[in-house]
Design brief:
Distance between the termini of chain A: 65 Å
Order of helices and strands of chain B: HHEEHHHHHHHHHHHH
Oligomer: heterodimer
Strand order of the largest sheet of chain B: 1-2
Number of strands of chain B: 2
Strand content of chain A: 5-15%
Strand content of chain B: under 5%
Largest sheet of chain A: 5 strands, mixed
Distance between the termini of chain B: 37 Å
Largest sheet of chain B: 2 strands, antiparallel
Helix content of chain A: 40-55%
């Protein structure tokens, strides 16, 4: 009996030790690591990537193709991808990797708190320097490059997933039916909405369940009038919603659109997919969309049912020239601690082949000013003049604001759009959020 | 057999695995959350020790937290009404029929095994305004204005609607438990009641329901526990909105920790939820114990 007990204990001990040893000796996906997470030179076996999104996301499609091809050419094992779809889940995952100093070779990262955290632990490559090293910096669209400039030091640490331009899609057939023109200013836009509503149409489709969709209407006027000045001053508590003309215009616009019934009924429960289905299914006259929807819009556009127009001007104010929001989507970062010669080679390979993968595989605009291939959807060629000369990028409030203030504003903008609070109440609440969250 | 079960080692052997797992996954997590709640931490970088300042803010300045506590209470009451009383009514109904009983029982139980994501998607479509969902389409037959009735995006209705969906999902589970309890009521009691001249309603009110009272109490505790920490339905259906109108304590905790990246404060909210659940559970137990003594 006693011998049995000893044998069982010994067996359990062996199992425990082997488990611990197995854990210690586990090779990471991209090769063996030392204690600090650095890979020893010459031991790279594969390239790893953590991507926010699904298998249909642009970054995955492009990187999958380029990494696979590169790995084959270099005799590496196939690349390893980790895909996380939900935004909150992705952030949690990334935080985990940052905290444990175990970031993969390539990872998705927003320009803001996360890129700052990665910078703080010296885990993010200066993409601007790398683009300069390989002579591709001048080839990148200026507005997209500008979009990823770090607020603290002006460097660029993130590589754009694509060039995204945003615009209003409108139903040409409905506009023609009522003899309507596309609006140049926000007042014209509101008049247009009123006319359409009076005719019994749904003027505007919005995915109110998505934080960013309503926030666009809140930030259009501040962007056209101040680019990023208002939002940066708001964050620095030098400017207030209650006193800034541009910010007040934004709040007023969202309030009017929501309370006058210009959005579709139940807009706060409509997610992006449902909004897409609604608009391309024939409901609504206008929809704030972007180049990511070209595939869905293709057929209606070809039939002459769809047109597009840029973001209107703010009446009576000095607006900046760029009127098409351009951004690089969710950024891609390279881990400086694993950025060895192979990764440098891959970076160059990626930049040289990125446009081809964007246009032919992901069906999106390339962040580089390379010539577009022939045979693409006609919308690609028609949209290009919108951003060809743009130098100012879109300013995403969701990237700039701290997470707590962003969450507060998201809840508050829903109340504003529903008319549960006035623009003045919203402005007062918004000004308080930044103070509370900075403590 | 009696002897072996009486031995301390054997009892320990049976209890230890559950105790270890419970300690690791519940007790340690609670202690860990309690530790984090004393810090200001964004999830990355250094933590700043705050002492009890997160709790002071939570209990004295955070009005949203108290509104979420009120929402959770309303949510729990609706869930108890639907799951416990609804489940009991459905179980009584099942005991009264002889044909299609098994089929109906299975049908009512189906939502329990469907995932919350699917249930929420179904209700989002059913309650849709644009395009008009089935519910509004049916209601508009009686009143055309009801075609534009907002359920999920209406701040006055989003909370009850979320509670209804949660109630609907788990009603079948409690129905099955009640059904099993009801068919376990001894026939002699029912026959004695009939001999005494009790009609069907009286048989249930004075004999069967009092007999299954412990089951009712147990189900109430289960629903209470489930509803107080309910997360998925509210989050998936309304995301706590519009605004904070359907925000529950658990969704608020999640938003604070994972969306606002205030892990310390989110942990303080989590600790408050633990405390509230314990207090409510203990109060409920006291009330029901008193009822037993009476």
């Amino acid at each position: 009996m006693r011998a049995k007990k000893i044998a069982a204990l010994a067996l359990a001990g062996v199992m425990l030790i082997s488990t611990v040893l197995a854990g210690c000796g586990k090779e990471t996906s991209s090769g063996s690591e030392n204690n600090s997470g650095n890979k020893s030179a010459g031991e790279r076996k594969k390239i790893t990537a953590l991507i926010r999104g699904s298998e249909t996301s642009t970054t995955y499609i492009v990187l999958k193709k380029l990494l696979t091809k590169f790995s084959e050419e270099k005799g590496l094992e196939p690349p390893e991808f980790e895909l996380v779809s939900g935004d909150a889940d992705y952030v949690t995952k990334l935080q985990l990797y940052i905290n444990s100093n175990a970031l993969p070779d390539i990872y998705g990262c927003a320009n803001g708190a996360l890129s700052k955290a990665a910078k703080d632990i010296d885990s993010i490559v200066n993409i601007g320097d790398e683009l300069e090293r390989i002579g591709k910096k001048e080839d990148m669209n200026k507005a997209v490059y500008d979009f990823f400039k770090d607020a603290d030091d002006g460097n660029v640490y993130l590589f754009p997933e694509s060039l995204n331009c945003e615009f209003f899609l409108y139903r040409k057939d409905i506009f023609k039916k009522y003899n309507l023109e596309t609006p140049k200013t926000w007042n014209e836009f509101l008049e247009l909405c009123k006319t359409l509503k009076d005719k019994g149409e749904i003027p505007l489709i919005v995915a109110g369940k998505e934080n960013w969709q309503l926030m666009r209407y809140l930030s259009f006027a501040p962007w056209r009038m101040t680019k990023d000045q208002f939002i940066l001053d708001y964050i620095g508590q030098k400017e207030k919603f209650q006193t800034n003309t541009a910010a007040k215009s934004g709040a007023e616009l969202l309030y009017t659109l929501g309370t006058e019934g210009y959005f579709q009924g139940g807009f706060l429960s409509t997610d992006y997919t449902a909004a897409t289905d609604l608009f391309f299914g024939g409901t609504g006259c206008m929809w704030y969309s972007g180049s990511g929807q070209i595939t869905q819009a293709s057929e209606m556009y070809a039939n002459g049912e769809l047109g597009f127009f840029p973001v209107p001007d703010v009446d009576g104010e000095e607006d900046m020239d760029t009127n098409t929001p351009i951004h690089g989507g969710f950024g891609t970062a390279f881990n400086v601690q694993t950025y060895d010669d192979t990764m440098k080679e891959f970076f160059q390979y990626m930049c040289e082949n990125y446009s081809e993968a964007c246009y032919n595989d992901a069906k999106v605009f390339s962040p580089f000013n390379d010539p577009m291939p022939e045979g693409l959807d006609p919308m690609f060629y028609d949209l290009q003049p919108l951003f060809e000369k743009a130098t100012d990028a879109w300013v995403s409030w969701d990237d700039k604001l701290d997470s707590a203030t962003l969450t507060n504003l998201v809840d508050e903008q829903q109340k504003l759009a529903q008319g549960k609070e006035t623009p003045e109440e919203f402005e007062a609440a918004a000004d308080q959020f930044i103070i509370n969250n900075s403590k | 057999m009696q002897n072996s079960f009486g031995r301390k080692k054997v009892i320990l052997m049976f209890l230890l695995p559950a105790f270890i797992i419970y300690t690791l996954f519940v007790v340690v997590s609670v202690i860990w959350a309690g530790y984090y709640s004393l810090f200001d931490w964004s999830g990355v970088g250094d933590k700043t020790f705050l002492g009890i300042r997160n709790y002071v803010h939570l209990f004295t300045k955070d009005t949203i937290f108290w509104s979420t506590a009120a929402h959770t209470l309303v949510y729990t009451i609706i869930c108890i009404l639907i799951q416990v009383f609804g489940g009991l009514v459905f179980a009584i109904f099942l005991t009264r029929i002889t044909r299609f009983r098994a089929g109906l029982q299975t049908l009512y139980y189906v939502p329990v095994v469907i995932s919350s994501v699917a249930i929420c998607q179904i209700f989002t479509k059913l309650l849709s305004v644009t395009p008009i969902g089935v519910i509004n389409a049916v209601l508009s037959i009686f009143n055309p204005d009801l075609a534009f009735m907002e359920w999920i995006s209406n701040d006055a209705l989003s909370l009850p609607v979320a509670a209804f969906v949660e109630g609907y999902k788990y009603l079948g589970l409690y129905m099955v438990i009640f059904y099993a309890a009801l068919i376990g009521v001894p026939k002699e009691l029912e026959e004695a009641a009939i001999v005494d001249g009790a009609n069907v309603v009286q048989q249930y009110l004075h004999v069967k329901i009092p007999y299954i009272r412990p089951v009712i109490v147990a189900n109430c505790v289960l629903v209470l526990n489930g509803s107080l920490r309910s997360f998925d339905i509210s989050y998936l259906l309304t995301k706590g909105g519009p605004g904070n109108s359907s925000e529950l304590m658990s969704t608020y905790m999640y938003k604070q920790a994972f969306t606002s990246m205030k892990y310390g404060y989110g942990s303080a909210v989590a600790m408050a939820i633990v405390a509230i659940c314990l207090i409510v559970g203990l109060v409920f137990r006291k009330i029901t114990e008193r009822g037993d003594e009476e």
